[in-house]
UniProtKB/TrEMBL annotation:
Residues 1-254 form the CN hydrolase domain. SUPFAM superfamilies: Carbon-nitrogen hydrolase. Pfam families: CN_hydrolase. PANTHER family: CARBON-NITROGEN FAMILY, PUTATIVE (AFU_ORTHOLOGUE AFUA_5G02350)-RELATED (PTHR43674:SF16), NITRILASE C965.09-RELATED (PTHR43674). This is Carbon-nitrogen hydrolase family protein. Keywords: Hydrolase. InterPro entries: Aliph_Amidase/BUP (IPR050345), C-N_Hydrolase (IPR003010), C-N_Hydrolase_sf (IPR036526). The keyword Cell division does not apply. It comes from Frankia nepalensis. GO terms for molecular function: hydrolase activity, acting on carbon-nitrogen (but not peptide) bonds, in linear amides. It comes from the Bacteria.
Amino acid sequence: MNVVTFAAVSDLFGRDLDECLGKVARHIEAARARGAQLLALPEATLGGYLSTLSPADDPGTMSDTPLLDPDGPEIARLVELAGDMVVCIGYSERDGCHRYNSAVCVGAGEVLGRHRKVHLPLSEGSSYDAGTRFTAFDTPVGRIGMLICYDKTFPESARTLAIAGAEVVVCLSAWPMSRTNPAADLAADRWRYRFDVYDEVRALENQVVWVSANQVGVFGSLTFVGNSKVVHPNGTLLGATGSDPGMAVAQVDVDDALRVARRGMNHLRDRRPDAYDSQCLLAGEPIIRQPRGDARVPQGAG
């Protein structure tokens, strides 16, 4: 039995790092008061989203997103704030001459895992370099993996984590409503619809617990859709914030949830890499040609 209380935050984060860390501290304490063992905060929580956007409270100014050292004082402060809670959070990273849209997972007094956003949409490539891998890692609440926003639109991203043993996938986003044809009602916006569908489908197709944290509110020309959530491995929505700032909280017996979801049709076990086009295979995955009628699970199927 591995009963875990998950929490996912919807909030807006700007450029001022002290303000961001203060807000993070309040969310950690609120999550702790609700019994959370894992807390997910959005993409770009520390320092706000793209430098090409100006804050809503000062639309005439442009300020660079602060680039943080992955082992710098802000991350050390986050480790301190998290204590024994597992906390996943987004920030902009500087590594030598490279810049990344990054996420870090901390807990138990240390950095547990990292992720650099691999898929960069639209103009984001002019602000960041792309990450190159998806990695699952062990934490006090189980084996998890992280994605950032646009990563989740590619099924290979979450599938890579699931095959690597991730029981929980945490996706951190700054996902906006449509800019070309926005809905009058944010909850009915077509980009909000996509955001929610990806969360539920990725949980179901990989049979993992899915924790999704998103920014909310207006930042520059973007209106973020919020609706942070926790999704069961069977695709059922367990809790969500809706279009307002807030925290979604749900308790899941992870071991039992995965067992029940996978006891009949196990999507990882039943994969057939031998039948897929080579471009659909994960990096390094062998193509195992099987004799006709052989129903054994192919090598590499997880």
